[in-house]
Write a structure and sequence with these properties.
One of its GO terms (biological process) is tRNA threonylcarbamoyladenosine modification. Keywords: ATP-binding, Cytoplasm, Magnesium, Metal-binding, Nucleotide-binding, tRNA processing. One of its GO terms (molecular function) is metal ion binding. One of its GO terms (cellular component) is cytoplasm. With 174 residues, the chain is of the alpha/beta class. The protein has a single domain, classed as P-loop containing nucleotide triphosphate hydrolases (Rossmann fold, 3-Layer(aba) Sandwich). 30% of the residues lie in helices and 32% in strands. It is built from six helices and seven strands; from the N terminus they run E-H-E-H-E-E-H-H-E-E-E-H-H. The protein has helices spanning 13-29, 47-57, 103-108, 111-116, 158-166, 169-172, and strands spanning 5-10, 34-40, 72-81, 86-96, 119-124, 138-145, 148-155. A seven-stranded mixed sheet has the order 1-7-6-2-5-4-3. A hairpin with a 4-residue loop joins strand 3 and strand 4 (86-96). Helix 1 (13-29) crosses helix 2 (47-57) and helix 1 packs across helix 5. The longest helix is centred in the first third of the chain and has 17 residues, at 13-29. The relative contact order is 0.26. It binds adenosine-5'-diphosphate and magnesium ion.
């Protein structure tokens, strides 16, 4: 069994982006229908930086706005499906719950259906929806130390464990 939590030192923004990209590509190799990644850490910790790099690695083009005001930004992904030689179409949701406070909003805004349904969800400030969010496949915790980030990856499901295992050794020992 690989470890349930993996500490990583990310030296700079590039390292954070490389980690997000590696995890995105690991998922895209065998795209499970549903993926939930939570991102926590203070303002400026790099949550949006991680989410942007993850979405870019899955082919999202154009501007990737921070959802800090809109709560939710949605993207359409086209993932090359090597097994069936076609393209898997699915949605990606970038969610920021910083301004989320009223549990009633969880249903009203449709967030329950979004994170419970098919697609990839990247959720910043998950602690704002404690008890509402389903268990994350992977939780990413980011702690700033100057330009460096102390990062802890925690796998909550078998899928999360699989993404761990797929990380290049160079990243794991970083
Ligand atoms: N190692 C690093 N990883 C991520 N961001 C970093 C790193 N070092 C510096 N930064 C900077 O920190 C800021 C992180 O901002 P952002 O990703 O919006 O944070 P958050 O979404 O957590 O509030 C960016 O300005 C980025 O350039
Ligand atoms: Mg952010």
């Amino acid at each position: 069994m690989p470890p349930a939590a993996l500490p990583l030192l990310l030296a700079n923004e590039h390292d954070t982006e490389a980690l997000a990209q590696a995890l995105a590509l690991a998922w895209a190799q065998h795209p499970a229908p549903r993926l939930l990644i939570t991102l926590d850490g203070d303002l400026g910790a790099g949550k949006t930086t991680f989410a942007r790099a993850f979405l870019r690695a899955l082919g999202v083009q154009g501007r990737i706005k921070s959802p800090s005001f809109s709560l939710l930004e949605e993207y359409t992904l086209g993932i090359p499906d090597l097994q069936f030689k076609g393209t898997l179409r699915t949605s990606a949701y970038h969610i920021d719950l910083y301004r989320f406070s009223d549990p009633q909003e969880w249903d009203d805004s449709g967030l329950r259906d979004v994170v419970g349904g098919p697609g990839v969800s990247l959720v910043e400030w998950p602690q704002r929806a404690q008890g509402l969010l389903p268990a994350a496949d992977l939780s990413v915790h980011l702690e700033p130390m100057g330009e460096q980030r102390q990062c802890t990856l925690q796998a909550g499901t078998e899928l999360g464990q699989r993404l761990f295992r797929a990380l290049p050794e160079g990243l794991k020992s970083g």
